[in-house]
Amino acid sequence: MSNSDCIFCSIVAGNIPCIRIFEDEVVLAFMDIGPISDGHTLVIPKAHFGRLHECSTEVLAGISNCIGRIVQAVVEAVDAEAYNILCNNGAAAGQLVEHVHFHIIPRNSGDGVFGRWPAYKYQEGQAEEIGARIREKI
Ligand code: 5GP
Ligand code: ZN
């Protein structure tokens, strides 16, 4: 349940200090050491899971149970207009710490925290074809 090479497991165990925001049996929330906006908070399961899809349903339920309350507290505390919840999964997606975590990132208009959303259009029939491939996997 704990990984001796994992920074976040060490934080859960109290071996690396952090600024704790909230904890219950399943979840720990603490301030990110390298914030991209004031109040940037991480929500993690206390047990070690690498990526979101590897979490047990109990852990996912435990996160769902408290994340809304944590978000509301963070946003009110820093008087933010909005927030992003971000969960990077895998190195190619920007995951540096291989213990699943949700970033709570308070946002304000024009803060420039993220660049432009790089949306594009599918070619004719491409969305249907990819959608069918995904449905087959579920
Ligand atoms: P990722 O890129 O894996 O989605 O994000 C990892 C996050 O963990 C980064 O935002 C980084 O600042 C944060 N982080 C890494 N090490 C520590 C640490 O020792 N303490 C705290 N509080 N945050 C950390
Ligand atoms: Zn871990």
Tell me what you see in this structure.
This protein has 138 residues and is an alpha+beta fold. Strands 1-2-3-5-4 form a 5-stranded antiparallel beta sheet, with helices on one face. The protein has helices spanning 7-13, 57-78, 126-137, and strands at residues 20-23, 27-31, 41-45, 82-86, 102-107. 30% of the residues lie in helices and 18% in strands. Guanosine-5'-monophosphate binds next to strand 2.
The dominant shape is globular
Number of strands: 5
CATH architecture verdict: 2-Layer Sandwich
CATH topology: HIT family, subunit A
Instruction: Kindly report the average pLDDT value.
Output: 97
Structurally, the number of domains stands at 1
Tally of contiguous helical segments? 3
Across the major sheet, the strand order is 1-2-3-5-4
User: How large is the share of residues in beta strands?
Assistant: 15-25%
Alpha carbon gyration radius: 17 Å
**What is the helix content?**
25-40%
N-end to C-end Cα span:
27 Å
CATH class: Alpha Beta
Hetero compounds: guanosine-5'-monophosphate, zinc ion
